[in-house]
Each structure stands twice: as structure tokens, then as C-alpha cells.
Amino acid sequence: MADFEFKAVNRTMLEDIRIIERYCFYPYLYRSTRYFARKILAGNFVAVYIEQTCAGYISLTRHRSFLEISDLAVDIRFRRLHVATAMLEWAIRRCIYLHVAKLRLVVDEENECAVKLYTKFGFSFLRSRKNYYGLRNGLVMVLRIR
Ligand SMILES: CC(C)(COP(=O)(O)OP(=O)(O)OC[C@H]1O[C@@H](n2cnc3c(N)ncnc32)[C@H](O)[C@@H]1OP(=O)(O)O)[C@@H](O)C(=O)NCCC(=O)NCCS
């Protein structure tokens, strides 16, 4: 397997992102170009390319005391290759760079793969958000940096 190439997402790469976004999230979670543009400007949006193909992406939102993972998905052809893990490691580097002590996210309680990914990475459960995803609850998970 070739190396993972991290690229800061720009507007022309949004098409690659949308291909993954379209089948990863049901019901389809459409993020507007404006939504992504803010993350591009803030430097909080990267994609991993493997042999010139977009394998996955992650975007972060800055809050006062933590960074939040707003989007994270991996193309089905590149799963279980630790692409998501590599992107979480990038998110930690981003926290360190921005002097932010916590990385946080909300995950669908029924998204077992993602919950396993975050738990294995070291995130801990903070609280539930009732009906955050329609009838399903969201789990707020947090990772303390250093
Ligand atoms: C969840 C997701 C991002 C994982 O991406 P990935 O690149 O395949 O994950 P990794 O290869 O880094 O997995 C790291 C660890 O997470 C766990 N894990 C990941 N996917 C798993 C799965 N399908 N089943 C069980 N465990 C899984 C494993 O412990 C894995 O380590 P291992 O392969 O050494 O056993 C990917 O499945 C995805 O894009 N899902 C759809 C979108 C989504 O749910 N995003 C998260 C929104 S909060």
C-alpha cells in the first residue's frame, strides 16, 4: 500500500469529498460549500490521498476550549487501513498547534465502527445527547491532549 498523502482541502477537491460524503451518511448529510469554505479558510480541513485517490477526510470546528471533529469519513475501498486513525493523529497535532487541550466529537450510538475507532484511539464517553440523530442518541466523546 502506497503512503498516505495529507492535503489541505481546497475548493477544487470538494468534488472528491462529496463522492465519499454521499454514500457514507444516511440520511444524506449535505454540507454546503459555504460550510466547507469556513473550514478551508481556518486550515481545519484535510483529506488523505492514496495513489491520487481521495481515501478520506476530516474537518474540525474550533470552540473556545476544544476542537470538535465535525466530519470524518473514509472511502469504503480504503477502510481498515488506519486512514481514520492517521486523520485523528492529524487532529491531535492540530490541537497541539492551536494550544487546545481537548478534542471532542458526537457519534451516533448505533455507529459501532466509529465508536470502536474512537474508543480504541483513547476517547472516553462524556455524556449522551438524546435524539441527536433523529430517534437515535448521540454520544459525546472526548480526548484530553497531554
Ligand atoms: C468509521 C470509519 C471512519 C473508520 O475508518 P477506517 O479508516 O476504516 O478506520 P481505521 O482503519 O483507522 O480503524 C482503526 C480501528 O477502529 C476499529 N474499527 C474501525 N472500523 C471498524 C469496523 N468496521 N468494525 C470493527 N472495528 C472497526 C478497529 O479497532 C480498527 O483497528 P484495527 O483495524 O487494527 O482492528 C469508516 O468506517 C467510515 O468512514 N464510516 C462511515 C462514516 C462514519 O461513520 N464516520 C464517523 C462519523 S462520527
Task: Label this structure with key terms.
Aminopeptidase; 146 residues; binds coenzyme A; seven-stranded mixed β-sheet
DSSP strand count: 7
Write the H/E string, N to C. EHHEEEHEHEE
Ions, cofactors and other bound molecules = coenzyme A
Instruction: Write down the domain tally.
Output: 1
* Overall CATH architecture: 3-Layer(aba) Sandwich
CATH superfamily membership, which one? Answer: Gcn5-related N-acetyltransferase (GNAT)
Q: Termini distance?
A: 31 Å
Mean pLDDT: 94
Distinct helical segment count: 4
Q: What spatial form do the alpha-carbon principal axes imply? A: globular
Q: Helix share of residues?
A: 25-40%
Computed over alpha carbons, the radius of gyration is 15 Å
Helix/strand-derived category reads alpha+beta
- Estimate what percentage of residues fall within beta strands: 35-45%
For this structure, the CATH topology is: Aminopeptidase
Task: Set down the secondary structure blueprint.
Blueprint: E1 5-8, H1 14-24, H2 33-42, E2 45-50, E3 53-62, E4 67-74, H3 83-97, E5 102-108, H4 112-121, E6 124-133, E7 136-144
This protein binds coenzyme A (COA).
